[in-house]
What we know:
Layout: E1 8-13, H1 19-31, E2 35-40, H2 47-57, E3 64-70, H3 75-81, E4 87-92, H4 100-107, E5 116-117, H5 123-134, H6 139-170
Parallel strand pairs: 1-2, 1-3, 3-4, 4-5
Amino acid sequence: MIENVKPKVLVVMGSDSDFTVVKECLKTLKQFDIEFTAEVCSAHRTPEEASALSRNAESNGYELIIAAAGKAAHLPGVLAAFTALPVIGLPIKSSTLDGMDSLLSIVQMPPGIPVATVAIDGALNAALLAIQILSVKHEFLRAGMKQYKENMKKKVNQKNENLKDLIEKEI
């Protein structure tokens, strides 16, 4: 297993307004030392560019695509149609339908074009799912995920202790 090459992820947003949500995903990828490129591309307004991004992703060294989209949210499915790389869809909450339209557009893919889908505005989980998928090839990511989960466990245990102290003081 060759570990000297950093994993590389393509992150595509349907609009620059999605950045406020996607930022958490990018921070997490960076924290795990994953190289990424972030792009704005629309499945509907720039379909040729979306096709080219996806068709060329593997030859450009990407191992996975994260696609964030709101409203009709066809971007993850369009990107998945043009590549064999795993695609993770990140539904973005829009002002209408509270993001349910985005979620359903991404999760209801036809047979043969799978898109892994995380929660509405679930940018952190999009990054963590990408890390777990990439950890099959990159062992350092698996070790990092184990440490991440251990840190979460410690935080919850500390909150439990804090709660016990609070109850003791106030009840």
